[in-house]
Structures are given as C-alpha cells and as structure tokens.
C-alpha cells in the first residue's frame, strides 16, 4: 500500500489507481472480486481502473486474472538510470556479494524510508525480505543507519517524527537519544552495524556512498547469519571491504 506522507492534497482517482496496482502486486495477480475484497473497494471501481490500466499496458490479463505488467520495468529502469551513480554502483554490489559470499544491497532514502535499488546474492547468502523496491525503516538496519548518520539532524528528526522507532526485534533501538549517540559513533568510524536489530539471526555492516560534491547518494551493506558474521570478519574485514568500495565509488563519481 501507499505508505508515505507527502503532505498536501491528493487526487482520489489517482490514489485509487495506484492502490489497485499495489494490491495486484501484493496478491501476485488477482481477479476483480478478489482484489476488490482485498482493498475494500467496489467491484465496479476496481474493474473500471483495471480496464483503463489494461488498455494502457500497465496490467496484463491471463484468463480472468489481472497481473502487474512488464511496462513498469521500463519506468523502474528509468528511475535507476536517472542518476549516473547507479550505473557505477550496480557492478560493485555484485562484486561485494561474490567476494563475501553473502548478500549485498544498496539503498537510497525516499520519504524517510530506505528503498532497495540493487541486491546481489553470494554463494552462501541466506534469504531475506530485502526485495528490490521494498521499503524499510532506517533505524534498524546497517545501511539505514549509515544514511541517517549522513543526513542533517533536522531531517533525521523529521523522519523519526514521521515513522517513529518501532521495535522489529528485542535488539532494535527504540530510544531517540540512544539512536543519536549511535549515529555519532557511525560518523566517527565511517560504518554502521546491525546486530539482529531488524531480523533475528541476521547481522550486517553498512557504509554511506557519497558523490563528488560530498552529498549522500545511498548506502551499501553486506548481511549474513550471526554464526558467520562475527569476530574479525564482522568487526574489521567486512567494514574495511565496504569502506574501500565506497571510497572507490566516491572517486569515480567525483571524476567521471
């Protein structure tokens, strides 16, 4: 569902259309009645919007079931290609996944949440719900805390006012003062860690990626199970690997 609060007025018809699209994605395809029940909308409303979206090519139909169409891929690619940085970052995500054999991802901040743009899986990586386009809380992940640590304090306050500090596990930081203290540490050492703060049994290390003007682009992270993410590997080797990759990206962005 639409979960950001952009402020100002919204056009109800447009909002309904996107709610229907997101509902289709959530259900992985649905019939009109099934989707209407899922969203709490009238069958006629859902049918009308789906018919228009079908004519425009944004949904496809298989029998009596509608699915999100591949036309959205083109729009998604346009978003990623909009910044030159993304073209440089994608191969680095793959390289990190291969070197660590774990899961590597890159996020950006949008509407106060983290959005996964790239994700690659190493040979030993475990499954997580970090699907492309998924939105996450910033306070509970290594990449998210790397982002927060490099935003103006006023912006961080806005994000916390909007989304709060919900506890995802017993290790999640839920105190604002404690979070700001950790953000200060992250700025000093250059990287953030997630010690089972978003998912039990999962740890991660994250670093910010800055552009040539020292503006935040997003954050890289490597995640894996706690039984592997420990000792020198977790405390030093992965942070150094990520910091080196981020530094290389920043130089490429500055002089490209």
From TrEMBL:
Keywords: DNA-binding, Transcription, Transcription regulation. It holds the Pfam family HTH_IclR. Signal peptide: none annotated. GO terms for biological process: regulation of DNA-templated transcription. Residues 11-70 form the HTH iclR-type domain. SUPFAM superfamilies: GAF domain-like, Winged helix' DNA-binding domain. GO terms for molecular function: DNA binding. It comes from the Archaea. Gene3D superfamilies: 3.30.450.40, Winged helix-like DNA-binding domain superfamily/Winged helix DNA-binding domain. InterPro entries: ArsR-like_HTH, GAF-like_dom_sf, HTH_MetabolicPath_Reg, Tscrpt_reg_IclR_C, Tscrpt_reg_IclR_N, WH-like_DNA-bd_sf, WH_DNA-bd_sf. This is IclR family transcriptional regulator. The lineage of its organism: Archaea, Methanobacteriati, Methanobacteriota, Stenosarchaea group, Halobacteria.
């Amino acid at each position: 569902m639409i979960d950001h609060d952009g402020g100002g007025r919204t056009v109800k018809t447009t909002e309904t259309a996107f709610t229907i699209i997101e509902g289709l994605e959530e259900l992985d395809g649905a019939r009109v009645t099934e989707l209407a029940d899922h969203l709490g909308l009238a069958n006629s409303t859902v049918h009308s919007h789906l018919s228009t979206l079908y004519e425009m090519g944004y949904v496809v139909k298989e029998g009596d079931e509608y699915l999100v169409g591949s036309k959205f891929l083109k729009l998604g690619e346009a978003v990623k290609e909009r910044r030159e940085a993304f073209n440089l970052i994608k191969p680095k995500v793959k390289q990190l996944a291969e070197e660590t054999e774990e899961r590597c991802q890159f996020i950006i901040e949008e509407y106060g949440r983290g959005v996964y743009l790239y994700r690659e899986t190493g040979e030993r990586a475990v499954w997580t719900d970090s699907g492309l386009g998924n939105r996450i809380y910033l306070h509970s992940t290594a990449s998210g805390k790397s982002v927060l640590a490099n935003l103006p304090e006023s912006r961080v306050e806005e994000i916390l006012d909007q989304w709060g500090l919900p506890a995802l596990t017993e290790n999640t930081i839920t105190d604002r003062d404690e979070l700001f203290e950790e953000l200060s540490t992250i700025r000093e050492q250059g990287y953030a860690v997630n010690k089972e703060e978003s998912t039990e049994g999962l740890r991660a290390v994250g670093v910010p990626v800055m552009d040539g003007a020292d503006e935040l682009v997003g954050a890289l992270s490597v995640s894996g199970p706690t039984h592997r993410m420990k000792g020198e590997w977790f405390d030093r080797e992965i942070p150094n690997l990520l910091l080196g990759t981020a530094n290389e990206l920043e130089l490429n962005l500055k002089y490209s």
